[in-house]
Specification:
heterodimer; A: 326 residues; alpha/beta; Rossmann fold; 2 domains; seven-stranded mixed β-sheet; five-stranded mixed β-sheet; globular; B: 325 residues; six-stranded parallel β-sheet; two-stranded antiparallel ribbon; 10 helices; 12% strand
Chain lengths: 326, 325
C-alpha cells in the first residue's frame, strides 16, 4: 500500500529525499551500497545514486566518522552509518572529543553538518555487544544533537531536519521498530529537531518515552484506560534539543511523571529529564517521579532474560498503577 | 625553490622560531597558562610543505601545531594572543595552544587527541574528490601517531578510495618522553608502514626546507592527478622538550648536539649563501622578523580579555549553546 511505509523503508526514503534535493549529501558506511545495509535500511540508495554518492567502507569506525567530519568541514553533508550503536565505542573519540568541540574550540570557525546513523537497542536477541540502548552515551557530550524516532513518519521528518542541520546529529534507529509500519508522510514532511509530540492525550499521569519505549508506553496506556487511569504519552523524539517545555506543561496538568527509557537507569537520559522537573516543576507534583529504565547489567541473550532487563508493558503498567495509587 | 622563494621560506621559518621562543619566554613569565608544545626545530616541515601547496588546500595539524598555523597565514600576534587567553586570539581564546586553527586559509585545526585528525584529512580529501576541486588535504602528525589505530584506518581508507591526501610525519625520534624506536616494530615508524597500504612512502630530511618542498610538491602532484595518497616521513628534532614541563633530559647530549648543528635555519642560510644571496639580505629579513615578533608580543599583552559571554557561544552553528526548551 502506497500510503503505508515500514520504519526500515522510511530510513532509506528519508535519506533519498534529502539526496534528491541536495547534491552535497553523501553516505558512507559498512555494507550500505550494493549490499543495501545489514538492516536493509539503505535499500535502493546505491541503485538510485550510485557509487559516487553511496560509499562502502572497510570495518573502520574511526575512519568512517573521522572522514565524515573532514568532509562535513569542507562543504559536504555526509551521512555516516555505524552499523550497531554499540560500535560507537570504536569511534568514541570523534563523538566525544572531535565533532562536538570543533566549532566551539575554534571560536566558531568551522561547522560540522553531519549525521551519524546507527541501529540502537534490544529486542532482536543479539546479546550484550549488539543490543544496547546507548542514546545516553551521546547525551553525556555537549555539542551533539540527538534524534531517536519512534514512527516511520518521524524517521523521515527527523532525517530531513538532521541532514539539513548545520550541527552534528546522532540519529538512533531502533532495531525493534524496524519491521513496524505507519503512515507514509507527504513529500515535504519535516519534523523540527527538539520538538516532542504528545503521542496520546491523557489527564492522570504523564509518561515520557523515546523510540522503542513509546509503543511500550502506548500499549500500557491502552490497558490502563480499562482501569480508568488516563495516561498521557509524550514522545520526546530528540534528546538534544530536549523539549522540556512539552514535558513540564503536561506534568502541570497531570501532576504525575513516569519516564520510560531503554538505556540503563544508571546514567540514563531519564535522569536528566527528571532533574529538570524536580528543579522547575516540583510544586506541580503530587507524587514522586518514577523511572522504568534498563537494568544496570549487560544485555543478556535469551529473550526471557532480556525481557527482565528492558522496559516492558507490564513494568510500565505496574509503575503507573503505583504512582496512581500514591 | 628559487633563491627568492628560499629567502621567503627562510624568513617564515625565522618568524616561527622567534615566535616559539617568545611563547616559551611568555610561558616562563606567567603570561601563558596550561601547556605549550613548541615546534622550534620543526619549522622546515611546515614551511617547505606550505610552499608546495595551493592556497585552497587543506591542512590538519596536531597540538604541536603553531608552525603549521603560521605557515598557513596565522600571524604571530593571533597565535600569541590565543596562548595568552586574549580576545584577539586566533580562536577567541576558546582553543588555546593545542587548537590553533585558521579556517579561512584552509588550516582546519590542531587536534590534541593523537592521530584523530588523519581520518579527518582523508575526509577533506574525499570531499575535494567528490567536488572535483583539485584540492589536496595534508595531515601533519608526530611519530607517536604511527602506532595508533586512526593512523592505520586513515591510510587504508585513503588508499582504497585513492584520495588526494598527504600524510606527513614529523619524526622527531621521541613519542613524548620515550624513544619511538623502543616502541615501534619498524625502523622508520611512518614510511615503513606505507607498504601495508600499497602507497608510496619515503624518508626525507625534514630540516631542509628545499627537500620538504620537493617531496610535498611531488606528492601533491600525484594526488591531484588522481593517483592517491603519499606517506612522507620527515626526520626532524625538537629544540625544546615535549611540552612546557619537560626539560627533555632523556635525550643524549651527543644526539642533541648533532641535531642542533643541523638546524633548519642554518641549512636554509647555507643554501641561500651558496645561491649567492648576500648575508646582508638575510640579516635584513632577520631584523624584520625580530620587529614583527616584538610588536606581536606587545600587542598580545595589551589585548583585552575575552568577553565572559563567549563561554556560551558557538556550541551550535546558530551561535548559541541552547540544549533544551
Amino acid at each position: 500500500m502506497a500510503d503505508v511505509i515500514s520504519y526500515r523503508e522510511a530510513v532509506a526514503e528519508g535519506i533519498a529525499r534529502e539526496m534528491r534535493r541536495d547534491s552535497t549529501v553523501v553516505c558512507l558506511g559498512e555494507d550500505i551500497g550494493a549490499a543495501e545495509g545489514v538492516f536493509k535500511t539503505t535499500v535502493g540508495l546505491f541503485k538510485e545514486f550510485g557509487p559516487q554518492r553511496i560509499w562502502d567502507t572497510p570495518i573502520s569506525e574511526q575512519a568512517i566518522v573521522g572522514a565524515a567530519m573532514g568532509a562535513a568541514m569542507t562543504g559536504m553533508r555526509p551521512v555516516a552509518e555505524i552499523m550497531f550503536s554499540d560500535f560507537l565505542a570504536c569511534c568514541w573519540d570523534y563523538l566525544a572529543n572531535e565533532i562536538p568541540k570543533a566549532r566551539y574550540m575554534t571560536g566558531g570557525q568551522v561547522t560540522v553538518p553531519l549525521v551519524i546513523r546507527t541501529a540502537n537497542g534490544g529486542g532482536l536477541g543479539f546479546g550484550a555487544q549488539h543490543s544496547q540502548a546507548v542514546e545516553n552515551w551521546a547525551l553525556t557530550v555537549p555539542g551533539l544533537k540527538i534524534a531517536a524516532p519512534s514512527t516511520p513518519a518521524d524517521v523521515i521528518g527527523l532525517m530531513a531536519s538532521a541532514i539539513r542541520s548545520d550541527d552534528p546529529v546522532v540519529f538512533f534507529e531502533h532495531k525493534a521498530l524496524l519491521a513496524g509500519s505507519g503512515a507514509r508522510p507527504p513529500d515535504d514532511h519535516v519534523v523540527e529537531l527538539g520538538k516532542a509530540t504528545v503521542a496520546r492525550e491523557g489527564t492522570d499521569i504523564t509518561v515520557v518515552g523515546l523510540a522503542s519505549t513509546v509503543p511500550v508506553a502506548l500499549k500500557a496506556a491502552e490497558q490502563l484506560a480499562g482501569e480508568a487511569i488516563s495516561v498521557e504519552v509524550i514522545d520526546l523524539r530528540c534528546l538534544v534539543p530536549l523539549d522540556m517545555r512539552t514535558v513540564l506543561s503536561s506534568v502541570e496538568r497531570t501532576s504525575h511523571l513516569l519516564v520510560v527509557e531503554e538505556n540503563p537507569y544508571q546514567g540514563g537520559w531519564g535522569g536528566t529529564v527528571v532533574s529538570v522537573v524536580a528543579d522547575e516543576g516540583f510544586e506541580m507534583l503530587d507524587a514522586p517521579i518514577k523511572r522504568v529504565a534498563g537494568a544496570c547489567v549487560p544485555l543478556p541473550f535469551a529473550d526471557a532474560l532480556e525481557a527482565e532487563v528492558i522496559p516492558t508493558v507490564d513494568k510500565v503498567t505496574e509503575a503507573v498503577r503505583r504512582l496512581s495509587a500514591y | 625553490m628559487t633563491p627568492d622563494e628560499l629567502l621567503d621560506a627562510y624568513e617564515e621559518m625565522a618568524l616561527i622560531r622567534r615566535t616559539e621562543k617568545a611563547a616559551h619566554d611568555l610561558f616562563m613569565a606567567g603570561f601563558v597558562k596550561g601547556t605549550t608544545h613548541l615546534a622550534a626545530g620543526h619549522e622546515a616541515v611546515a614551511v617547505g610543505a606550505s610552499a608546495a601547496l595551493r592556497p585552497d588546500d587543506y591542512v590538519f595539524a596536531t597540538y604541536r601545531g603553531h608552525h603549521h598555523a603560521m605557515a598557513r597565514g596565522a600571524t604571530p600576534e593571533e597565535c600569541l594572543a590565543e596562548l595568552m587567553s586574549k580576545a584577539t586570539g586566533l580562536c577567541q581564546a576558546k582553543g588555546g595552544s593545542m587548537h590553533l586553527t585558521k579556517a579561512s586559509t584552509g588550516m582546519l585545526g590542531s587536534y590534541a587527541i593523537v592521530g584523530a585528525h588523519l581520518p579527518m584529512a582523508a575526509g577533506a580529501a574525499w570531499s575535494a574528490k567528490l567536488r572535483g576541486s583539485g584540492q589536496v588535504a595534508v595531515a601533519f602528525f608526530g611519530d607517536g601517531a604511527t602506532n595508533i589505530g586512526a593512523f592505520h584506518e586513515a591510510l587504508n581508507l585513503a588508499a582504497v578510495w585513492r584520495l588526494p591526501a598527504l600524510f606527513v610525519c614529523e619524526n622527531n625520534l621521541y613519542m613524548e618522553y620515550t624513544p619511538i624506536a623502543d616502541v615501534t616494530a619498524v625502523p622508520n615508524p611512518a614510511a615503513d608502514r606505507a607498504g601495508g597500504y600499497n602507497i608510496p612512502g619515503e624518508v626525507i630530511d625534514g630540516n631542509d626546507v628545499t627537500v620538504v618542498h620537493e617531496a610535498v610538491a611531488r606528492a601533491a602532484e600525484r594526488a591531484r592527478k588522481g593517483d592517491g595518497p603519499t606517506l612522507i616521513e620527515a626526520q626532524t628534532y625538537r629544540h625544546f622538550g615535549h611540552s612546557r614541563s619537560d626539560p627533555a633530559k632523556y635525550r643524549p647530549a651527543e644526539e642533541v648536539e648533532r641535531w642542533l648543528k643541523h638546524d633548519p635555519l642554518d641549512v636554509a642560510r647555507a643554501r641561500l649563501e651558496a645561491a649567492g644571496v648576500p648575508p646582508e639580505t638575510i640579516a635584513e629579513r632577520d631584523r624584520r622578523v625580530a620587529q614583527v615578533v616584538e610588536a606581536a608580543v606587545a600587542a598580545a599583552k595589551n589585548a583585552p580579555e575575552p568577553d565572559r559571554e563567549l563561554a556560551f557561544t558557538d556550541v551550535w552553528a546558530d551561535g548559541s549553546a541552547t540544549w533544551r526548551t
